[in-house]
């Protein structure tokens, strides 16, 4: 949704935030360098190989049982790999049994082009753009890479990999089977005790190198081959593409006409998604609000920022626009995936129908699941009622066959397509 400019923007522009409102370029260095002067000495391929070793290393967790890939697995498009979890609360259990966070894992693929978090201004709109995590809090301000800063978060999150300090991560890497890769990539002093802070940043930059590699950002879908003129889309897929660009308004945020066709503009939006009644976070001791908890989305991060606090309320309930690449990638047709920041939707058909009919179907009388809502022909009330995007979804007048055509097109976005 393109939110009207808030008067507080003018005050921000008059202060230090003016620098943050300028357009930033995505990270694209071949050899990352930290402010300390420590730079990667490896070529990009070797740095990506190191990042991959870290990404799949389950020993980098409190109980040695959870890696980045535990929540971002390649066979499901670099997101949650367990159908039973996706079919219910969608939030994955951390390394410590019984601990859960509050949101589903987004895809780690196609995240590296996200620019440094900033406020973008034009004549009509004031939009936050970039960063990583659903709420943008991995801004990229410090390392120049939102993906690198995001990669560092789960290691120390008590609800995820749950290690206590950066030193715990670094020491395990430096004593582990790929320690030589780490030293070769970042120099002979990287494992020195005095360099723990720099070494921890190097971990994030290495993971980001893997996440930006062709293994992760493969661009090998049927749609990519179609763009290259190597295959044809079916009649239904072509219709879906045209609806995606036109009547369905999907391309307004899930942009596809730029050179890369990343299917996201890296902005934030409140789609009016209901709360997921099966979210385990409602019962976590770390959640003081219990069942009354409401996800603040972007506003939760903005409240922690001196520069942007004044804009928090008008961004309540907004979450990062995800890429749609690999949105249907799954190991078998019966595998359940989940969609939305809280995994409320369990099918492409369901979420497309929601986009089409949210504002013209009755409101469910309670916290229905997607299955219950579809059966009753209703939708629960939005988790956050303010700021809901009514310009690009809610009453699109799509027929059932047009909805299905959009779904058919979305299924052309899975990497690894074989002719």
Question: What would your notes on this structure say?
Answer:
This protein is mostly helical and 419 residues long. 29% of the residues lie in helices and 3% in strands. It has two domains: 8-72 and 108-211, Cytochrome c-like domain (Cytochrome Bc1 Complex, Chain D, domain 2), CATH 1.10.760; 222-277 and 322-413, Cytochrome c-like domain (Cytochrome Bc1 Complex, Chain D, domain 2). It contains 14 helices and four strands. Strand 1 and strand 2 (126-129) form a beta hairpin. Mean pLDDT is 92; it is low at 1-30.
What composes the largest sheet?
2 strands, antiparallel
- CATH first level of the largest domain: which class? Mainly Alpha
Question: Poorly predicted ranges (pLDDT <50, ≥5 residues)?
Answer: 1-30
Mean pLDDT, rounded to whole units? 92
Q: What amount of the residues lies in strands?
A: under 5%
Q: In percent, how helical is the residue content?
A: 25-40%
**What is the CATH T-level topology of the largest domain?**
Cytochrome Bc1 Complex, Chain D, domain 2
Please give the number of β-strands: 4
CATH architecture of the largest domain: Orthogonal Bundle
Please give the radius of gyration in angstroms: 21 Å
Helix count equals 14
Name the structural class. Answer: mainly alpha
Please name the fourth-level CATH homologous superfamily of the largest domain: Cytochrome c-like domain
Query: Could you tell me how far the N terminus lies from the C terminus, measured between alpha carbons in angstroms?
Result: 37 Å
Helices and strands, in order, run as HHHHEEHHHHHHEHEHHH
Strand order of the largest sheet: 1-2
Shape: globular
Into how many domains do the coordinates divide? 2
